[in-house]
Amino acid sequence: MKSVNDLISVLNLKQASENEFIGISKSIGSPNVFGGQVLAQALCAAQKSVASNRILHSLHSYFLEAGDLDLPITYLVNNMRNGGSFSTRRVTAMQGDKTIFILATSFHKKEEGYQHRINFSDTIKQPEELLSWDDILTQFGAFLPQQMKAFLEIERPIEFKPTVIVNPLEKKDLPPFANVWFKLRGDAANLDLALKQQLLTYISDYNILNATLLPNASKANWGNTQMASLDHSMWFFREFDLTDWMLYKTESLNAFGARGFSRGNIYTRNGKLIASVAQEGLMRPLKK
């Protein structure tokens, strides 16, 4: 995938029946289906069953089995409730007779209420000052571990710019914080809110587990640790524009028992808080 249009085509499910939808997969460089893709496709299925005046405000999910890139994914939507203000849907993702993923979503009618939000520090470098993943590959590709180099060589519909570039050859423990700017490639204007929420959900599964490795970076890295998303939750707060850069601030509060926990906030460039994310992931040291 090279642009937002390529990504949208993957998220656009085929409807098999009233509550059944079929999706295809595209690799992002791992041997299994990308968790963000399953999240976004399941959300797409749920949104198709909800009235247009109900807006997604939260989702909670579990990854149960690794997805096979070569098999279609069937999404079954269960209408749990349509209340006066909220609608709830449950989505089950299947490959053959295997359940690989479950999702619960809640939608809310538009209402007025009190407001506040936290902001990010104005000392964070702007994306124009930073190197992208493509720049890192071009400038440092000859020195990168082969696995990292191969990952960066995959074409993506999203451009990422980390605020700090961690040297994988420098074996040093680091604070459990990781911030990255991101922007869709191609024309992301004139998208409706439901589709933008699907795209943001897809993107949110990138980078969030990076912070879990940093406090043990003297010995732990993506090459010697089995990493996988176990669950994923998101809360959506405000309308947003995907044509400009957005900031994904993540921090890891805990790692224990071969699991790591991270949470993150997604902001517009001018500091508007759009969404919050939480995820626990497998981080199992590989035996030599």
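Second entry:
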Amino acid sequence: MANAAEKFLLNYQEHFLWSVLTTTNNTRPSPRVGQLRHSSDLGFFYTTKTGTSKIAQIEKNPLATISLYPKKGFDTIVAHVSLRLSAERRDLDAAWSDELLQYGYTGKNDERLRVILITVHQVTFGKDSYEGTPIDPKIEGKISKGESQSIATGPFKTKEIDELLKKTFTPKKLADLITFQGSYHDSRVMEVHYKEGVGLFSSTHLGSKKVNEIQVNENVALLVSDQKAWDQIIVDAVAKICTCPEMKKKVWEDSLKAFGFKGADDEQLTLIIYTPRRTIHHTMVAPPEELVAEPIPSK
């Protein structure tokens, strides 16, 4: 029998095609759009191929987050889950659908095919919370400890990244902002802007949950998808909280009054400034294109 968290997710199956699965890449959130699926045999699951980055990340850390955006307001459905990889024949057979052929699989006997089985521990949506399966204490012991992010190496494409972000976020766009929430991630939809002299940024309230999370862990990711073109751009970034009056004057626009701000000098108005480390552009017609920026100097 489905628990409260699973029942809640099943109410939003029309959004499964564009779910965001976020795993952890050493010290950084690693999101991607994927089709969440559900069956009576497997429960919730994804399909994937051997050799993908998500498989390597799940093997090191099975804790993950699935987010769904119902396209109303800015609240996002956030599911805290644990993942298990399976190559068992019965799971592959149960997961197979001929529609997977469009993603490059040759059939249910494709040696690359893997199933990501999902255990849902908790789902939140706005102020509401739904409990799922209690987390297995043994999972903490499966998480690889003491890993650090590898140092970026060239060729660096900092200028190309800036041009891509300027093109993508001018005018502003809605994007998923993924932060860390303890061992899991948090996700919400934000308006993200690009402005000369400022770079990539969002506006928010000083005491918001996302601000607190960034102050604890500055590693974030942005994900913007084009559902018509079937592509997505992921921005791996360092986020900084900025309350500088001059910066707030640079970005102020009257549309911010709709979010309760009185003006550029409003003490609650806070900027999140994103410094990109790399971008990944996924399309349906070509392999992912990754651009790496010059390393951010340590302070």
